[in-house]
Amino acid sequence: MKTAVALLIFNRPDTTEKVFEAIRQAKPPKLLVVADGPRPDQEDDINNCAATRDIISRVDWDCQVMTNYSDVNLGCGRRVSSGLDWVFSIVERAIILEDDCLPNPSFFRYCEELLEKYQDDERIMTILGTNGFNKWKSTSQSYHFCYWPSPVWGWASWSRAWRCYNHDIQAWANPKVQQQIRNFMADDALFLGMAWRFQRAYRNEVDTWDWQWYFAILSNSGMAIVPAVNLVANIGFGPKATHTKSRRPRVVNRKTYSLEFPLLHPDGMAPDLDYHREITKVRPIQEFIFKIKAKLRPYKNYLLNLIKHKNF
Asked: Entry's InterPro entries (predicted)?
């Protein structure tokens, strides 16, 4: 490998050890590790954070290790976003893994080759490791393009793309920006799926960083690359997770596959609309909730006042 790997860790030595071993097998020349600090109200965090960081000391290949460890807990949103600011201030391109995202060995070569191929193509802003359907047109091509840059369970990008990132996404309040994204996606169902996320991130209703990354991509008319087979399994689902507490079989510990090399490149750069349509079919509840909230928002204070004073 010639590409740096960034590893995002916190307090889960069990999953971190598995992801670290996958990185160890790939032997990147540079490993940049970002860690959040223990939460003050969780006694186990001190030992668990320390045990997780100790795993990094096991680097036994020719590798420059750089660390960015926080002494205090910044939370998922601010720690990851500030950590990636640090990563992309050091390297121009990187492969990023969180402590619960276990990659297939071919994931690293796939990322590295496409980081090189699309280095100067500003239409492409991220390379994903996850395929929402395990396999998608895998007999005819190695990857496709899409407007839906989710989920970011193992991905790669460039500093040129990360410069568009803003954690507070204040631009979402601008109706012109919203319309620009809607026009770019050219699909109301897709737009509503993302708008639901952007609205919550803008209102600071969720401690996350990735929805803001989706906004950076779409507000700059960018696209994601999706592999033809699933290359990354999220092994962190469960009660200890920050967000991924679900135990749905569709997403938990999904199987990964190996990509064949050399890569089969798509004939053109148009987004795969068939993939988009299938993706949106699995998110109808989120879209429904967003629509209902949007309609009720003008009456929110009035309804809360009625409930408070029981004027009904």
From this structure: Nucleotide-diphossugar_trans
